Amino acid sequence: MNRDEAEALLKKHVKNDRMLDHSYASEAVLRALGRRLGQDEELWGLAGLLHDIDIEAVGGDLTRHGLEAERPLREAGLDDRIVEAIKRHNETACGLKRCTDLQFALAAGETITGLIVATALVYPDKKIASVQVKSITKRMKEKAFAASVNRDTIRECEQIGLPLDEFVAICLEAMRGIAGRLGL
Question: Do 24 and 182 touch, CB atoms closer than 8 A?
């Protein structure tokens, strides 16, 4: 499946603009991580783009999120590595631990997008371009800030050999590259 086909599949299942923006941010982050780690950037990008394809179908029910994605992804012929990473980005629902670089990268990468957006929104200009790596790492320690963002999941970046500061820098730069699309 190419990127255009993947985006069409995403838009068939996800209508909410905020969720679409999150999917695009996750795609950018996963592409950047794949590039940095010498992995298949296209495959990793598709995983980021499609990871929340079932969120509206499950009505936000996190006990089913990720599991319901499997059927449409397999029917579309997605690579098994993508399907497994998408299932496992929500370990609680699937009951399977993450074990590959793509699985860890997807979970950490899609999670940090929320922290980056939340940080940008507290800046006067509300622009990702204004956000610094140290601002994100500082916010990681503030549990009340963007409280729904799981910091432990973000720290799984270490499972793919990236210290937190480097991981944040890669993700922040990736999101800056699509800031216009995100309206940030």
Answer: yes
| Other beta carbons within 10 Å of 129 | 12
Q: Write out the two tokens for 57.
A: 């179908």
The torsion region of residue 35 among left (phi > 0), alpha (psi -120 to 50) and beta comes to alpha
Tell me the C-alpha distance between 145 and 122, whole Å: 10
User: Position 68: which residue type?
Assistant: E
Cα gap 101→38, rounded to integer Å: 11
List the domains of the chain with CATH numbers.
3-182 (1.10.3210)
What confidence tens digit (pLDDT) does each residue in 126-135 have? 999 999 999 9
Q: What residues contact 114, with CB distance under 8 A and at least 6 apart?
A: 22, 146, 148, 149
pLDDT digits (tens, 9 = 90+) for 79-112: 999 999 999 999 888 888 999 999 999 999 999 9
Q: Which sign does the torsion angle of CA 182, 19, 120, 151 carry?
A: negative
Q: Residue 48 in contact with residue 109, Cβ under 8 Å?
A: yes
